[in-house]
Amino acid sequence: MDGNGSERFDTVIVGAGQAGLSAGYHLKEAGRSFVILDANDRIGGSWRTRYDSLQLFTPSWAVKLPGWRFPKRSALHPSREQMADYLEAYAGRFDLPVRTGVQVERISREGDRYIVSLGGARLEADHVIVASGANRDPRIPVFSRELDPAIVQMHSSDYRNPTQLRDGGVLVVGAGNSGADISLDVAGSHRTWLSGPDRGHVPVSIDTWVARNVVFRIIRFVGVHVLTLRTSIGRRAKVKYASKGDMLVRVKPKQILAAGVERVPKTVGVTDGMPTLEDGRVLDVANVIWCTGFRHDLSWIDLPIFGEDGELMHERGVVTSEPGLYFVGLFFQYSAASCVIPGVPRDAKYVVERLLERERNGVAPETVAA
Questions:
Q1: The pTM is what?
Q2: Which of 75, 289, 295, 327 has its CA 20 to 30 A from that of 311?
């Protein structure tokens, strides 16, 4: 604690998910003074609040953060709870200094130090690693406010299971992976429509032995080592993914059809309180689930780190315009796998290496007390 009541650290990490914990592992190995802050009440909270039926696409053998692999090999694909428990156990195994229930409201700079504001408290640091992701604000169309108040509306981040819904039809808006999963989840008890364009799908079942142990290794290699910002095919892929979204991975169109889910065009507005489709149809539904993603919101970082287009300016997670500020877990930070488990550990290691390099070049480190 310094004279103005601030706690002082070499590094503050914002976010205790797989990205923040991976960065914390490397800082711990280097003997740095750091703290990891997370808004959730428990480590792994961002996983625990996902829908009940969620399973990872990554097979259990490939879930590995630095120093320790996912231990439950009997699970072919970890569930949301198993993944959350793994993260919690990981933090405990390496004695990482995580503070939960802490909401970071602002990151700014005073002189040569970063200030991390936590409501009535504040932390000072030479370095800040933002590992919370940019997806803190659910994206819901403005016209949703015009829907009949009797319609149950929720974003996919608030959906858990069908018991939250009213009797009657369900419109799932957004035909990506979450939308496809949730449409199958509710179709057993509700008439269901899935709205949005077909972006394609992985042609093989990811739950077979061959897919888990052969196909996934190929996909992982391509996502981690081929589709990177160093390759022309990788740079093209980044533009494509950003504009068109991902294809379906686990769910196949035939499964959606077999479950009785009706595929419909994009939802574009409201007519007499009911959702209206791009082809002019008006659906009489009792529930709408918005699987429409999240806004890229980093407005809580009060630093000049954004370009004229509003995008974060960085090189592999290193913000060159603000020395000492880093990111881990961004979409296509370096490769197509940067925001998912196979790519996060490499990016975290790279960022911490740059942080330590900066210290060696003149910024005095705070070491952990013996």
A1: 0.90
A2: 289
